[in-house]
Protein 1
Amino acid sequence: MFSWMAWTTPVAVFFVCIALMLVGMTWWEIKSPTTLRKGWLPMATTRGDRLFMGLLLAAYINLTWVGLGEKMVQWFALAEEPSVWISFGLSMLALAIVMKKG
């Protein structure tokens, strides 16, 4: 069923984090319904909107990191491609910023 995906540890951790965020956001919405608010994003958003946009941003960060891995080896004279754990940390930080300030 899941053979189409390259299930490495970072990929599994990423998807587990997304699942936990969805469960947490559902619980938070039941306990405290959201209202529209305007942050630094160009529109008023709810928590769910910010989560969706943050997850898209996290996905793009990770895809860019993986796509530029070989180039980063050349650019920075690295012995091997940088770890995807770095992009995971960056993407979770970006998601947190969008959730807080967006």
Protein 2
Amino acid sequence: MELSRRALLSSVGTAGTVAVAGCLDFASGEGPQGPSGEIDELRCDDDSFRRLDQRFPEDGATYVTARTPADVRFELALQGAEKTYGSDLRVVLRCLDQDVDVEIASDEHVAIQRRTAAGWQDVRGTIDGSEAVYPDDTKTVGSGGGYTWSLTLREEPVADTLSTADLDVCPALGVGTHRFVYWGLPGDVAIGRQFEIIG
């Protein structure tokens, strides 16, 4: 089955929401090929690979709920905290407050990171060494508004989460602690959820 080149998809409340479905090859023994467990840092043998920079402070991502400078609350929900390689990660961002209109960044302002001894590192990077540029479009949301992401935990769909750059995942995804962070809330507020790739 051919995977879609877009893994991050729809907006909450948009008709025609489509989810990405991946191929599971467990019957042939395929699983995560990257480093497992506690690792010092993510290393890539490709000299042209440039890992994505973290666009928010190391301790700047709050978990589950976050407040903007205007005191508007957002929630990030994650369906299942333990995931196998090739399964779908479904994440929902929604505004919790009534009678508000808030402008947020595009759904591509996300980080997909692995926890290492050196700190959180994005698993993605540009294949030509260039600096990634993110879309500057915005969306106005009210109560219950936000985004929904459905991401297949395989290298190609994870690399296809940014339309403005050619990305790769290096090294390959491995067993360990990861997190999904959306850093497009007003005031540079970031909100994340941790999940485990368990095999």
